[in-house]
Amino acid sequence: MLKDGQLYIAHSDNGNINLVGNMANRHGLIAGATGTGKTVTLQVLAETFSQAGVPCFMADMKGDLSGISQPGRLSGFIEKRMPEFGIENPQFAGCPTRFFDVFGEQGFPMRATVSAMGPQLLARLMELTEVQAGVLNALFRIADDNNLLLIDLKDLKLMLNFVGQNAAQFTTQYGNIAPASVGAIQRAVLQIESEGGDKFFGEPAFDVNDLFAVENGRGVMNVLAADKLMLNPKLYSTYLLWLMTELYATLPEVGDLDLPKFVFFFDEAHMLFEGTSKALVDKIEQVIRLIRSKGVGIYFITQVPSDVPVNVLAQLSNRVQHALRAYTPQDQKAVRAAAQTFRANPAFKTEDAILDLGTGEALVSFLDEKGAPSVVERAKILFPLSQIGAITPGQRMDIQAAAPAKLKDYEKFFDRESAYEMLTEAAQKAEEEAEKERKALEKQKEKELKEKEREKEKKAKSSKKGVGRTILGTMIAAAATSFARSAGTRIAKNIGGKSTKSSTAKKSTSTKKSTTTKKSSSTLGTAAKKATKTAVNTAARKVTTEILKSIFS
Question: Under CATH, domain 2-111+203-416 is a member of which superfamily?
Answer without folding.
Answer: P-loop containing nucleotide triphosphate hydrolases (3.40.50.300)
